[in-house]
Design a protein that fits this description.
By secondary structure, this protein is an alpha+beta fold. The protein is built from ten helices and 13 strands. The protein has helices at 38-85, 89-111, 131-134, 165-168, 235-246, 248-254, 261-266, 289-301, 310-317, 338-353, and strands at residues 2-3, 10-11, 25-26, 117-122, 125-130, 149-153, 157-162, 169-173, 177-182, 191-199, 209-215, 218-223, 256-257. The strands form four sheets. It has a five-stranded antiparallel beta sheet with strand order 8-9-10-12-11. The protein has a three-stranded antiparallel beta sheet with strand order 2-1-3, with no helix packed on it. The protein has a three-stranded antiparallel beta sheet with strand order 6-7-13. Strand 6 and strand 7 form a beta hairpin. The longest helix has 48 residues, at 38-85. It is rod-shaped.
C-alpha cells in the first residue's frame, strides 16, 4: 500500500498522487516510490549486457572444452595405439591416465574456472571481490549512524534530513533552492535532487519534479536528475546513492515555507498589483492585521492621499513611489478605478470577518 505524504490518501497501484502530483510513500518501508527513471533503465541495461556477456563466455568455454576433449581423445588413441605396438600394457595405462588427467584439468579450467575480479570502494577502504560477490556488497552502516534530523534552509524554506547527509553529500545552498550531490560520485556529477521555490509562471520550465506544496504564486518542488549522475559500475557507490535517494520523504515530511512577514512591510508594496487586478479573500490569509491595513491604504496612497494617522503617514513616506499631495478630507472615492474600489471592499470585508475592524 502507498500513501500520499500531503493529503494522506492511500493507493495500491499508483506511484504519484493524482491529487497532489507528488511521489507516494510506501507504507511498509516509509520510502518514496518512483517510476523507472533514466538511471534505473541504464542500470538494468548494463546488467542485461553483463548477463549476456556471461552467457556468451560460457558458450565459448563449452566449445573450447569440447575441442580440447576431442583432441585429448585423439591423443589418447594415439598413445594406446603406440603402447600396443610396443606391447607394453604399463606404458599404455600410464599414457591413458596422463591424457585423462590433462582432459579433466582443461575442462575444469574453462567450465569452472576462476571468476573475473571486481574492485569496489567502501568508506573503510578498497576491497577485491568476485563479480558474483559484488551483487552482495553491504553498506557500511556506521556511515549512517548519525541519523538525528538536522536543518537545511534557505531564505525561502527549511526542511530536515538525517545528519549523515552532511558527511556523505555536498549541499549547494542559494536564496531559493538547495541542491545535493553524492561525494563519492563527484567525477560523475553525483546529483541527487534539488529543493526549490519557483514562481508558478516558471512551472513549465521544470523537468522531472514533484510538488511539495503551492502557496499563492510560488510552488515548492523537489526536482530530480534527468540522467545517471553516479558511478554505476561501483556497486558500493550505487547502493549508497540509492539509499540517499530514499531519504527524499524526509523533505516532504518536514518541509516548511517561510512567511516573510517583515519583508512584506519593508518591500515597496504589500500587494503590488492591487490597482490592476481583482484580488480574492484567499490571497489575504497570509497577511497579518497590520499588513492588511497597509494593503488597503496603499490603494489610496498610490493616488497621493495623505493620512491623519502619523504612523501610516510615516510608513508611506518611506516608500520611494509615494508622493502625498491630497489632504485626507479632500480625497474622493471616485478617484479610485473599479478594480481598486473592489479590492478595498474585499480587504474591508476580510478584516471584518477576522474581527480587525
Amino acid at each position: 500500500m502507498k500513501k500520499c505524504p500531503l493529503c494522506g490518501k492511500e493507493y495500491e497501484t499508483e506511484n504519484v498522487c493524482p491529487i497532489c502530483n507528488i511521489l507516494l510513500i510506501d507504507t511498509d518501508s516509509n520510502c518514496a516510490v518512483s517510476n523507472e527513471s533514466a538511471k534505473e533503465r541504464k542500470r538494468r541495461e548494463q546488467r542485461e549486457q553483463r548477463d549476456q556477456a556471461k552467457e556468451q563466455a560460457k558458450e565459448q568455454a563449452k566449445e573450447t572444452a569440447a575441442q580440447v576433449a576431442t583432441q585429448a581423445k585423439e591423443t589418447a588413441s594415439q598413445v594406446v595405439s603406440q603402447a600396443k605396438s610396443m606391447d607394453s600394457k604399463l606404458l599404455m595405462l600410464i599414457g591413458a591416465g596422463v591424457v585423462i588427467l590433462i582432459l579433466i584439468i582443461v575442462i575444469l579450467k574453462f567450465v569452472l574456472g576462476g571468476k573475473e575480479e571486481t574492485q569496489y570502494v567502501q568508506s573503510s577502504g578498497t576491497g577485491t571481490v568476485t563479480e558474483d560477490m559484488a551483487e552482495e556488497v553491504e553498506l557500511n552502516e556506521e556511515d549512517f549512524a548519525r541519523n538525528e534530523l538536522v536543518d537545511f534552509e534557505t531564505d525561502s524554506f527549511s526542511f530536515q534530513l538525517p545528519a549523515y547527509w552532511k558527511d556523505l553529500c555536498v549541499a549547494d545552498v542559494y536564496d531559493d533552492y538547495i541542491s545535493f550531490y553524492q561525494k563519492k560520485s563527484s567525477e560523475y556529477g553525483g546529483y541527487l535532487f534539488s529543493v526549490a521555490a519557483v514562481s508558478t509562471e516558471d512551472r513549465d520550465s521544470l523537468n522531472n519534479y514533484t510538488t511539495i506544496k503551492e502557496d499563492g504564486n510560488v510552488i515548492y518542488v523537489v526536482e530530480y536528475p534527468s540522467d545517471v549522475s553516479y558511478d554505476v559500475e561501483d556497486e558500493y557507490v550505487s547502493k549508497e546513492y540509492q539509499r540517499l535517494e530514499e531519504d527524499v520523504h524526509y523533505v516532504f515530511d518536514t518541509f516548511e515555507g517561510f512567511k516573510e512577514e517583515e519583508s512584506a512591510l519593508t518591500g515597496d508594496y504589500i500587494i503590488p498589483d492591487s490597482s490592476t487586478r481583482v484580488i480574492s479573500s484567499s490571497e489575504l490569509e497570509s497577511l497579518t492585521k497590520e499588513e492588511l491595513m497597509y494593503a488597503r491604504n496603499e490603494i489610496y496612497a498610490r493616488h497621493g492621499r495623505k493620512f491623519q494617522d502619523s504612523g501610516i503617514q510615516a510608513y508611506f513616506n518611506s516608500k520611494s513611489w509615494y508622493n502625498g499631495t491630497i489632504e485626507p478630507e479632500a480625497f474622493q472615492e471616485s478617484m479610485l478605478n473599479s478594480v481598486e474600489y473592489a479590492n478595498v471592499q474585499t480587504i474591508v470585508k476580510y478584516e471584518e470577518s477576522k474581527g480587525y475592524r
